Amino acid sequence: MKSKRTNSDTAISKNLRFAQALWPGEVNPFQAELLKSLTSRFAFSLAAGDLQLLDGKWYVTHTGLLGLSERSRCVGIRVQQVREFCDLSAARWVFKATAYKSSRSRGFVGYGDADPSNVSSLVHGAEMRVAETRAVNRALRKAYGIGLCSVEELGSSSFRSELPPTKQHRSCSPPVNGSGNGHPRLRDRLCLLIRKHRLDAGLVKLYAAEFCGTPVLREATREQVESFITHLAEWADRDRDGLLCKLNSYSPTLEVNA
């Protein structure tokens, strides 16, 4: 029992240190306490990408939910297309997922939908996969009693609060992608790169701040962020392994007391 408690305390300490490194000055006492609870109860790991802090709120990730289901020995997840609500011509998809915690479980059901109106404009064409992921996430959240929304269920980019504002005059051209400052397109480009190349969003954020020469990403100019996105895309296509090594260099060194 003592060993189990020690391991939990160590995991909590690691997550708190990692959170302060990834989101300096953004983790308030309330968020820290919630992170402690999530770590103790579900063994989520920030280093593994199980959680994300967005706009001051914790969100669980698909990776985190799958890891939890594996640790909890979930026996299976059944996914079915809900055909009566799908419309191929409109790129509208709805899936039903059922998570079975044990061989005797009657299953925990979750539904996920996706269409061009509730996914990023840069992932149009992938609505079916998004809907399936959302369904699985909801089923697993129900199965394991997780009240947090998952990142994949959000309709906007996880970088929505991190990019710098764009100064515009009233005489500027019409908004891009329905935004008065054009940021949805910039955010979506970065989010798409992270998903496409399976990068750690937190480490990308740290690298972006250094690349732009600012303490935090939100203080960078739009031009600096655009330059970083171009740089990131070229490096990821050319040498993903090298990019991963670079990103891993931003992982904080976590000391564990003996």
Summarize the structure.
This protein is of the alpha+beta class and about 260 residues long. It has helices at about 1-20, 30-40, 60-70, 125-145, 185-195, 200-210, 220-240, 240-250, and strands at about 50-55, 55-60, 75-80, 95-100, 110-115. It is built from eight helices and five strands, in the order ααββαβββααααα.
Series of secondary-structure elements, N-terminal to C-terminal? HHEEHEEEHHHHH
Q: Termini separation (Å)? A: 17 Å
- CATH fold field value of the largest domain: Double Stranded RNA Binding Domain
**Percent helix range:** 40-55%
In terms of DSSP E residues, the strand content is 5-15%
Taken together, the total number of domains comes to: 3
Question: Total number of helical segments?
Answer: 8
Low-confidence stretches: 156-184, 253-258
Description:
This protein is of the alpha+beta class and 258 residues long. The protein has three domains: 1-47, no CATH class; 61-155, Double Stranded RNA Binding Domain (2-Layer Sandwich); 164-258, no CATH class. 44% of the residues lie in helices and 11% in strands. It contains eight helices and five strands; from the N terminus they run ααββαβββααααα.
What are the key terms here?
258 residues, alpha+beta, Double Stranded RNA Binding Domain, 3 domains, three-stranded antiparallel β-sheet, two-stranded antiparallel ribbon, 5 strands, 11% strand, disordered C terminus
